[in-house]
Amino acid sequence: MRWIGVSLLLWFCGGGLSAEELTLAQQIFDGDHRRQVSAAFKLFHKQNPDIKLKLRYFRNDGYEQRVADWLASGQGPDVLFWYGGQHTAQFARSAKIHDLTSVLSRAQLQRDFAHIAVDAVSVDERVYAVPGVINLWAVYYRPSIFQKYGLKPPQTWPEVLNQCRLLRKQGVDLFAFGSRSAWATHAWFDYLNLRLNGLAFYRRLLAGEIAFTDPRVINALEHWRSLLDQQCMTANHAHYTVDDALPRLMHGMSAAILSYGRVEMSSLAEHDIAVMPFPEIKPGLKAWTVAPVDVYLVPAYTQINSTLVRVLKFLASETFQLANSRHSSRHPARLLDEDSVRMVESQARALIQSSPGGIQYFDRDVPLAVARFTPEVFVKFLQHRDVERCAKELESLRQQALRAGAWGPGPH
User: Fold this and answer.
1) Cα torsion for 338, 316, 60, 190, to the nearest 10°?
2) Per-residue pLDDT of the chain (412 residues; tens, 9 = 90+)
3) Whole-number Å distance between alpha carbons of 126 and 114
4) Which candidate, 315, 311, 365, 4, places its Cα nearest to that of 186?
5) Cβ(267)–Cβ(260) under 8 Å?
6) Cα end-to-end span (Å), the chain
7) Are 117 and 293 in contact (CB under 8 A)?
8) Residue 259, strand partner residues
9) Residue 194, CA distances (Å) to 8, 52, 162, 361 in order
10) Which end of the chain has fewer CB atoms surrounding its CB within 10 Å, N or C?
């Protein structure tokens, strides 16, 4: 999940020379996200006029390297926006960031935050970051389209393949799909592996411990090919981005889409968009999720003091979590009761809260040396559909990354 970068600067201060100062690095995804984050931190200023909080805004391009440079040099912002899961765990294990358990206990997080958020900031039962927002990937669909053809949303793999055939006869895709957003192909690979091989296996695969030519990976690719062979996905997917494909649902050309929370912001979300887990493939496996968690961590070079603790507690508060997620495609990591959310948002948050665990996202859980090339491999696979070729190309990337030490400490 990649964005293009630029650096911006903003100050929030309580006035006067006696204000204590802290700097926070915040990654932003677009203009709307910047405005939302800015508004959320203005609430901090109102509550803490004696603290001067300097916000440094960055787009994605080069942000990972900036963080690596700050941590290596021992100088940089006091608090860093970062990515949960393995990205945080690597910094924790290399002692590049502070253990925050004394500020936010694991018991407190387990009580107040979604399980997948707690998992994303924990290493060996210790807490190393504050959960921020969650961006759920799931199957969004239009109930009215299924009703029109006398169908129910597919819950199992046989139902998926059967409905592909039935809807294709009506000139409708089961899944809208846009491979022009090449990085979005990762979500399909993620979910097929989770539903066929389980979380423990997939985490080991993403950690570089298992070959991509393993028969279990081959099986996942074969399932993906069966979706293509059954014409389950938009035929001219190469012409669409993941967002461009969404109007196909609006116009009744597709019944569902594997996507992220931006779908919840569409004009249909008020009355004719629902969300469900990715269908079951292997009975008995849990409904693991793909849900990137954005977090805030404290570099080892930052001194833990009462001022910093107030900032961290604000980041974990209901006030910030709600303000930082409202009217956006992201959900608060904190468990909140909101009466004003739309049905699809309520359904998405129920999936988040009930998730038994999962991964962040392929390109957040593997080294960048792998993730920068896998989109091209997957897009080519969608065209040639040669499972063995795709697996060998993925394995070649893994071997190159292993030789380069890409799975070592620090950012991928």
Assistant:
1) -70
2) 543 334 444 444 444 334 588 999 999 877 878 888 888 899 999 999 999 999 999 987 789 899 999 999 999 999 999 999 989 998 999 999 999 999 999 999 999 999 999 999 999 999 999 999 999 999 999 999 999 999 999 999 999 999 999 999 999 999 999 999 999 999 999 999 999 999 999 999 999 999 999 999 999 999 999 999 999 999 999 999 888 888 898 899 999 999 987 666 566 656 788 999 999 999 999 999 999 999 999 999 999 999 999 999 999 999 999 888 876 678 899 998 765 567 888 889 899 999 999 999 999 999 878 998 999 999 999 999 999 999 999 999 999 999 999 886 544 4
3) 16
4) 365
5) no
6) 13
7) yes
8) 138
9) 38, 45, 21, 12
10) N
Q: Strands of 149-205 (E only): list them.
A: 173-176
Q: Report residue 337 CA to chain centroid gap.
A: 22
State residue 281 phi and psi, 5-degree precision: -115, -50
Token reading at 371 = 């993730």
SS3 102: coil
Q: Return the number of other C-beta atoms located less than 10 Å from residue 383's C-beta.
A: 11
Give the predicted TM-score (pTM) of the model.
Answer: 0.89
Residue whose structure tokens are 């309580």: 14
Q: For 320, phi and psi rounded to 5 degrees?
A: -70, -45
Q: What is the rounded CA–CA span in Å between residue 103 and residue 126?
A: 11
